[in-house]
Amino acid sequence: MGWNSWNTFGCEINEQLIMDVADSLVSSGYLSAGYEYLVIDDGWQAMTRENGRLVPDPKKFPAGMRALADYVHSKGLKFGIYSCAGNKTCAGYPGSFGNEFIDAETFAEWGADFLKFDYCYFPDWADPKIAYQKMGQALRETNRPMCYSICEWGKNQPWKWARNTGAHMWRTTIDMVDKWDSVRWVGFDMQNGLSSYAGPQGWNDPDMLVVGLNNQGFVAEGGCTQHQYVSHFSLWCMLAAPLMIGADIRSIDNFSQRLLQHPDLVAINQDPLGIQANRIIDSWQNDMRRQIWVKPLANGDMAVGGFNLSDQPMLLELATGQLPLNPDGQYQIRRLTLDGSKNRRHSLVHGEQKVQLDAFECAIFLISKKD
Ligand code: GLA
User: Fold this and answer.
1) Which entry of 13, 125, 250, 273 is 20 to 30 Å from 321 by CA?
2) Is 369's pLDDT higher than 90?
């Protein structure tokens, strides 16, 4: 869990911004909610290496990366940096191809705790698995523990091999932008069938959150409705996906802030079993699409998400017979309140559920066995 500069700022980043975001992560409750990595994405680099080393753009980061990492650490946060497996980064800055060992050393000297490693300008003749493996090894050889985040966009089915490179998370799709079609496609369509590849120490990454962008910032493409943002965040929690905030948390609206810090949703996301939800239903009826996703939890409960993916209201039926439950067992079902409030009030209901959902609304249930 953390924050990444890309979705709002693109390459328009600098030292003061990162320090301000570090302050907000702490003062606005994000760190206590679990968001601990502050990741600087593309655009921090100078255009040329110095003595073979990557260096930050001196205009954007005059005090240098070590000083900035120290500041971030002094706030109790972890410091993340970005580079690319290819010859250049996606924004055209120097990449790490052929320089994996020296770059890993540089990042470790700065005190990095996280590396996002992208895939632009990757030579046709080279093997991405070997390049990602090489950086994985280079990071290990620094002896500094770093979360290794592979951003290969799912091109070569990284869920099948990324764990062996030492990666802790791997992007499964191309970039998501701030509009519902993109969220729906990346999340509700593309993550199906990938659950068996995720688990503790290695996660499928369906990209950073667009919650709170509200059609502002670098990846704004029309924005989403409140129900769409809630469905997006709820699905990412069900998927046990990395939760990387992309919004400007210095000025985010209250609703989005409360949603991102929703204790029950975050607990589902962080559940120690680390199981990614499976999609058990994806059905169309009269032009209305609904999905049901199920995630077993460590305490024996089951999180169930019912999603209305249509632009009209629907009555969603959650027949317990559709769920992987013991038919002789007795269960109780609580629906989480998802209005962004911190209130843990749950309605207690039994048996079959029929729930009225607005356009693009979802309902998240916790099902537990009755003693
Ligand atoms: C790619 C990645 C994005 C972002 C940009 C930076 O598009 O997928 O997440 O890191 O590069 O240029």
Assistant:
1) 273
2) no
Query: Is residue 82 domain-shared with residue 13, that is, in the same domain?
Result: yes
Question: Is residue 133 within 6 Å of ligand 1 at its C-beta?
Answer: no
**202-225 average pLDDT score:** 98
Structure tokens at 164: 């062996």
Reference 293, options 310, 306, 311, 284; nearest CA is 306
Q: Are residues 284 and 312 in the same domain?
A: yes
Task: Choose one of 41, 87, 116, 209 to mutate for the ligand 1 pocket test, by most ligand atoms within 8 angstroms of C-beta.
Answer: 41
Q: Do 255 and 285 belong together in one domain?
A: no
Q: DSSP letters along 299-364, please?
A: TS-EEEEEEE-SSS-EEEEE-GGGSS--TT--EEEEEPP-SS------EEEESSEEEEE-TT-EEE
Question: Do residues 290 and 319 share a domain?
Answer: yes
57 assigned to active site: no
Q: 295 and 247 share a domain? A: no
Q: Closest residue (by CA) to atom 11 of ligand 1?
A: 90
Same domain flag for 260 and 304 = no
Which of residues 209, 240, 269 is at a domain's end? 269
Outline where DSSP puts E strands in the chain.
2-4, 37-39, 78-84, 114-118, 147-150, 169-171, 178-179, 203-205, 220-223, 244-245, 278-285, 288-296, 302-308, 314-318, 331-335, 347-350, 353-357, 362-369
Give residue-wise pLDDT tens across range 8-18: 999 999 999 99
Q: Is 175 a catalytic residue?
A: yes
Active-site residue among 42, 118, 205, 207? 118
- Enter the pTM of the model: 0.96
